[in-house]
Amino acid sequence: MPEEAFQFALTETEKADLFIVLGSSLTVTPANQFPLIAKENGAKLVIVNQEKTEMDQYADLVIHDKMIGSLLKELDG
Question: pLDDT per residue over 32-50, tens digit each?
Fold first, then answer.
C-alpha cells in the first residue's frame, strides 16, 4: 500500500463513527488493522463476509449468511 494511501485511510479510519467491512477475510496487513483502529476510536464495527474472520469477536454486528449484493439491495429498499 502506498504511504499516501495508507495515511489517508488511517486518518479516515480514526474519524469514523461506523466502519463496515464488506467481503474481506481481514488477513492482509496493514489493511486488516483498520477495523480495530476504528473500534479503538469509538466506531461501531460491522463485518459482512461469507466466512468467519479473526475480527468477528470485536464487531458490533457480524453477518455471514447473506451475499453482499443481496444485503445492500435489502438495505436500500
Answer: 999 999 999 999 999 999 9
Distance, in Å, from the CA atom of 62 to the CA atom of 77, rounded to the nearest integer, reads 21
Convert 7-69 into a string of H (helix), E (strand) and C (coil).
HHHHHHHHHCCEEEEECCCCCCCCHHHHHHHHHHCCCEEEEECCCCCCCHHHCCEEECCCCHH
Task: Report strand pairing: 18-22 vs 61-63.
Answer: unpaired
- Rounded to a whole number, what is the distance in angstroms from the first to the last CA of the chain? 35
The residue segments making up the domain with residue 34 are 3-76
Predicted model pTM:
0.85
Q: What is the CATH number of the domain that holds 27?
A: 3.40.50.1220
**CB of 59 within 8 A of CB of 46?**
yes
